[in-house]
Amino acid sequence: MTPRSLRPHRHDVLLALVSVLAGLVLWSLGVHQADSRDFLPDWAALVPLLVLGAMELLRRSAPRVALNVGTVGLVADQFTVGSLATVLIFTDLMYAAVVYGPPAMARRLPVTTGLITVAVTIVSVAWLRTPQALLIGVVTGLVSFAPALTGATLRNQREAAVAARLRAEQTALLAEMDRTQAVMAERARMARELHDMVANHLSAIAIHSTAALSIDQPGTSREALGVIRENSVQGLAEMRRLIGLLRDAGAGQEPAATPSLDGLDALLGQARTNGSGSGLEFVLHDDRTDGGAVPAPVELAAYRILQESLTNALKHAAPGTVSVRVARGGGQLSVAVDSPYGDRPGPRAPGSGAGLIGMRERAELLGGRFTAGRSGPVWRVRAILPAEERAVEA
Predict the structure, then answer these.
(1) pTM flag (> 0.70)
(2) What pLDDT score was predicted for residue 315?
(3) What is the dihedral of CA 219, 225, 229, 230, to 10 degrees?
(4) Of 153, 158, 221, 249, which residue is most buried, by most CB within 10 angstroms?
(5) Rounded Cα–Cα distance for residues 57 and 288 (Å)
């Protein structure tokens, strides 16, 4: 311990002064526990009193030392006329040792003092063989076991209160972490929806506006402007749908229909229109054979993955055929998009890579798998999603 840690508490200083003064008053009034001792003068009882009074200064900072010295002082007090104040000070040192001492000491003292009390009672009765011998055991219990048990009870209550406070703080921290994760997850979901709904239309607008500016032909410019207008209107409608989903449900606005695989033909028709000036053809192979409805989250994820894949094809694919395949079997829904990989003439729309991240997140959130990458002259996108309701719920 550092010298600063041994500094007595102000309450302990006051308690030591009061205890010693009370003992001095009792000694001056001739209040002793026993008659005069022939081999020691009466004032010898003041020595244990002063020693135990000094130990009161260490009851918090060094409870083990205070108790050990106090025990020796109490034994020495029995060879003098004795002081009631000395005994009372010892009971406080025993109490403080349990309350402020190390955990092992706090657990051991109540058991030890209890056994000592029982042993003293048995020995006294066996030796003196009088009913008054029981009083020796009672006094021993009051001096040692009772304060130790009281201290243990108080310490247990304090530790229980500290543990309850820590649990409350941990619960509050976990709740805040859950809230933060929920907010982040919702923001990620909104970012995916916003990207998937708007990127398709903005990419087409960027490509065709660049073509209209670079090719000085009235027919080409009019066709490009038509595509730009169509994608602007559709993009605005998608934005309104997203805003409607974010509005308060109490506003009375009914939610718009969620995109599903039933709209694949319209999605590819839009892709054909947007890619007509880039030499791209789009072919759909629908191999869904199993009946039954696919869970709505899976339908939406599959639709968005196909939509983003077609958007990437419009932005980056070389002239050629873009093949889209949808299949269902074995409790799984698989989607695949193959697009020509290579240099392409004409304008390009810049990409950020967020689309691939969003597609992977959609698949993994449902417990599915997603891969995307180059395979020779073809850029392949594959996603396998669970098509059964219980798999999605799990």
Answers:
(1) no
(2) 79
(3) 50
(4) 221
(5) 86
Backbone angles phi, psi at 336, to 5 degrees: -145, 140
* Per-residue pLDDT at 250: 45
Residues above pLDDT 70, as percent of the chain:
75
State residue 212's pLDDT score. 63
273, with CB counted inside 10 A (0-12, 13-18, 19+), is middle
Residue 71 is encoded by which pair of tokens? 């025990």
Q: Beta strands of the chain (E only): which ranges?
A: 280-288, 320-329, 332-340, 369-375, 378-386
**Does domain 260-394 correspond to CATH entry 3.40.50.300?**
no
Closest CA to 88 of 109, 73, 104: 73
Q: Which residues of 175-185 are buried (b: 16+ CB within 10 A; e: fewer)?
A: eeeeeeeeeee
- Please state, in angstroms and rounded to a whole number, the distance separating the CA atoms of residues 394 and 379: 32
For residue 249, the model assigns a pLDDT of 47
Contact status, residue 313 vs residue 366, Cβ threshold 8 Å: no
- Identify whether the C-beta of residue 246 lies closer than 8 Å to the C-beta of residue 186: no
DSSP state string for 100-143:
HS-HHHHHHHHHHHHHHHHHHHHHHHHHH-STTHHHHHHHHIII
How far, in whole angstroms, is CA 348 from its chain's centroid?
Answer: 45
For residues 386 and 332, the answer to whether their CB atoms sit within 8 Å is yes
Residue that is written with structure tokens 């065709």 in the block: 208
Q: What is the DSSP letter of 195?
A: H
Residue 78 backbone phi and psi in degrees, to 5: -70, -15
Domain boundaries, the chain: 3-170, 260-394
Helix (H), strand (E) counts: the chain: 12, 5
Q: In the chain, which stretches have pLDDT less than 50?
A: 1-4, 249-250, 252-255, 391, 393-394
Residue 96 is predicted with a pLDDT of 93
CA distances from 274 to 205, 206, 280, 285 (A): 9, 11, 9, 20
In this prediction, residue 211 carries a pLDDT of 61
Q: Are 271 and 231 in contact (CB under 8 A)?
A: no
Q: Which two tokens stand for residue 377?
A: 């002259």
- Going 265 to 271 to 275 to 281, the CA torsion angle's sign is negative
Cα-based distances in Å from 147 to 16, 108, 115, 153, 362? 18, 13, 14, 10, 65
Residue 168 to residue 159: CA distance in whole angstroms: 14
Residue whose pair of structure tokens reads 């304090």 in the numeric block: 158
Indicate the SS3 state at residue 285: strand
